[in-house]
Amino acid sequence: MNMNMKQNHNRLRLALLLGSFSALGPLTIDMYLPSFPQIAEDFGTKASLVQLSLTACLVGLGLGQLVMGPMSDVHGRRKPLLLSLVVYLIASLACALAPNITLFIVARFIQGFAASSGIVISRAIVRDLYSGHELTKYFALIMLVNNVMPLLAPVAGSGIISFTTWIGVFIVLGAIGLALALIATWQLEETLPREKRISSNFGELLRNFGQLLKDREFTGYALTQGLMIGGIFAYVSGTPFIYQHIYGTSPQVFAFLFGTNGLSLILGSQIVGRLSHKWSEQQFLLLGLLLSGASSVSLLIAVLVEGPLWSLVVPLFFFVCSIGITATASFSLAMENQAHIAGSASALLGLLPFVLGAVAAPLVGIAGEETAVPMGVIIFTASMLGMVAYFGLVRSKQRASGK
């Protein structure tokens, strides 16, 4: 009994640790969202350029995973993570000190690139240690810690700008990066032994990516997850202006509504983790896709008829919940057979959502700040394409192989 309690304690401690590293991405994205109007005013620029800083961050998060994932397969998990956290601290301070919107956007790209290591390496560590249903359950536990950040980050950001400016947000982010670097130095053990690391040969790294992309099931899961999470960035980019400008909410009300959807994300991932012994990951993925489709249709109708605020808030709650379900299930399914190149597989799984999100984020403001239609169209399109990717690649391959 004591041994089991000790194992559970160590399991929870590691989940908190890895969840904290992974949460650096959502923190970097979400904490400054309530500051969008203030940043636009201070730099004397348009909303679309402020949204471009989010795009730059998302591109950095995507490309960074493509670099840091394979690097962790070659050099182990600890060293690349520690190096990137130091870079993150410097980039956060550069954001705070940026004299114009152009340099701010550049600094946001570097900040996102550095934050990517927390996401991709924490996932690779989970695959180093677990497989099968245990992988699903443990990833759901990581997601629980990780998904608290979208709940807290905008609230923290609005709290910070209530007594200082948006600059304070980036100073706080820099302090978080420093704290995580110290924690990683003292608490994180290496999980990838030298004998299991791959060669640093660039050609071999490319062959690993090619091997993953030729796997129809892996590619299908990656595209499904990427499109769905890409759609959520339209919501992340659009709601600061839609809620505050079109519907006249305060930064505090926006933070509350945004944080409520953090709860829905937690709900979705924990449904998978708690019931993974009763339902298969395939069943959960299908459930998430159906929920996404229904909620995105409701949202599209609401924005087309210019419905009241609640008509957007309710379907967005269920759409974000569907992301929690699909992301947890698809990650476990995609990573199951990739133990030998977990870092590279995790990198590709992490790249697509941020690249697609980087495309979606600025498109939300393409019709101006007085309409929510682009956000509704993008989320609906992402949901439909996610279904196409799943049924066109994964299910067709499984039917062909007789699964």
Automatic annotation (TrEMBL):
Domain Major facilitator superfamily (MFS) profile: 12-398
Domain of life: Bacteria
One GO CC annotation: plasma membrane
InterPro entries recorded: Efflux_drug-R_Bcr/CmlA, MFS, MFS_dom, MFS_trans_sf
MF-aspect GO terms: xenobiotic transmembrane transporter activity
Location in the cell: Cell membrane
Topological relation to the membrane, as annotated: Multi-pass membrane protein
The keyword Cell membrane appears for this protein: yes
Bilayer-spanning residue ranges: 12-29, 49-68, 80-99, 105-126, 138-161, 167-188, 226-247, 253-272, 284-304, 310-335, 347-367, 373-393
Keywords: Cell membrane, Membrane, Transmembrane, Transmembrane helix, Transport
Stored PROSITE patterns: MFS
GO terms (BP aspect): xenobiotic detoxification by transmembrane export across the plasma membrane
Family from the record: Belongs to the major facilitator superfamily. Bcr/CmlA family.
Protein's name according to its UniProt entry: Bcr/CflA family efflux transporter
Native source organism of the sequence: Paenibacillus algorifonticola
